[in-house]
């Protein structure tokens, strides 16, 4: 088991989505019962397996990127001909219920094996990269991926294609958008979560995500990142704090995460922004003389 990342709560609150890279033994075994929905993405070389959940049984060869679905509270029996490695995505069932209500679909998740879906794979690789990099995006990025994953899983197992509820086409009212933006500005140094911001607006997570996107023109996690970068840019140009102090003040987990995000958004490094700030300060001093 890997240590739970610091960006996730350690007391009673269960994250919407977390990730774990786990070895899978060769031979027959029963998977442990988990209170969350578990997606097992296969990593590495092909491995022939058999899979049984209740009366549901399948056989085949697991390929890199394929995944199986183990619904919350269930156990599955596996038989592997060789050791393997899985990327486990563990999804909070409460989010699945919320998403299903928003999409007007049934929330029950069915067991499945040998599924290939590019969108689910991308979410898995992004969560894996977040874990390996120390979760630079924080809880709000993981929460956004959780929301996307639950919606995709429901869509995949729905036979009839249906459009989401009409609320998704609406935008967050201006006063609620301003309340969320003000809250973000006041708490940039905190590890913000999607549920926290949804509560500020007074909507469920799945409704809030789409309403915010319509109102702000970007996903909520991208908005928060943009505000963090802007806060860091201002502090860098002021030239009074160290990079470590600025990273903490702007809500980045490490100066290297700040530097990467600043460079991606502004096209400049922290050092270049400091130099720009110093030039502006010198110019202002000359004008005032």
Care to describe what's here?
- With 289 residues, the chain is α+β, with helices and mostly antiparallel strands.
- The protein has two domains: 17-156, Jelly Rolls (Sandwich); 166-282, Arc Repressor Mutant, subunit A.
- 47% of the residues lie in helices and 18% in strands.
- The chain has ten helices and nine strands.
- It has helices at residues 93-103, 118-132, 138-156, 174-186, 194-201, 205-216, 220-238, 243-250, 255-266, 270-288; strands spanning 17-24, 27-30, 37-43, 47-53, 56-62, 67-70, 77-80, 84-91, 112-115.
- The strands form two sheets. A five-stranded antiparallel sheet has the order 1-8-3-6-9. The chain has a four-stranded antiparallel sheet with strand order 2-7-4-5, with no helix packed on it.
- Helix 7 crosses helix 9 (255-266).
- The chain starts with 16 loop residues before the first strand and ends with a helix.
How is the secondary structure organized here?
Layout: E1 17-24, E2 27-30, E3 37-43, E4 47-53, E5 56-62, E6 67-70, E7 77-80, E8 84-91, H1 93-103, E9 112-115, H2 118-132, H3 138-156, H4 174-186, H5 194-201, H6 205-216, H7 220-238, H8 243-250, H9 255-266, H10 270-288
Antiparallel strand pairs: 1-8, 2-7, 3-6, 3-8, 4-5, 4-7, 6-9
Helix pairs in contact: 1-3, 2-3, 4-5, 5-6, 7-8, 7-9, 7-10
């Amino acid at each position: 088991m890997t240590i739970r990342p610091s960006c996730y709560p350690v007391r009673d609150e269960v994250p919407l989505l977390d990730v774990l890279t786990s070895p899978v033994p060769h031979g027959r075994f029963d998977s442990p019962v988990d209170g969350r929905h578990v997606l097992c993405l296969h990593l590495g070389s092909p491995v022939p397996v058999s899979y049984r959940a209740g009366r549901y049984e399948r056989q085949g060869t697991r390929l890199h990127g394929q995944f199986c679905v183990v619904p919350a509270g269930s156990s599955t029996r596996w038989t592997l001909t060789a050791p393997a490695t899985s990327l486990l995505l563990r999804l909070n069932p409460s989010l699945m219920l919320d998403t299903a209500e928003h999409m007007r679909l049934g929330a029950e998740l069915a067991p499945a094996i040998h599924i290939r879906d590019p969108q689910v794979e991308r979410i898995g690789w992004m969560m894996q990269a977040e874990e390996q990099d120390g979760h630079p995006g924080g809880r709000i990025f993981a929460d956004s991926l959780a929301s996307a994953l639950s919606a995709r899983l429901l869509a995949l197992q729905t036979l009839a294609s249906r459009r989401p509820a009409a609320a998704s086409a609406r935008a967050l009212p201006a006063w609620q958008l301003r309340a969320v933006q003000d809250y973000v500005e006041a708490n940039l140094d905190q590890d913000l979560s999607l549920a926290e911001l949804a509560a500020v607006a007074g909507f469920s997570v799945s409704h809030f995500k789409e309403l915010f996107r319509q109102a702000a023109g970007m996903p909520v996690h991208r908005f928060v990142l943009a505000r963090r970068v802007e806060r860091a840019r201002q502090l860098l140009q002021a030239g009074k704090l160290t990079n470590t102090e600025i990273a903490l003040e702007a809500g980045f987990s490490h100066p290297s995460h700040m530097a990467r995000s600043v460079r991606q958004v502004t096209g400049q490094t922290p050092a270049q922004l400091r130099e720009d700030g110093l030039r502006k300060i010198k110019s202002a001093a000359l004008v005032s003389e």
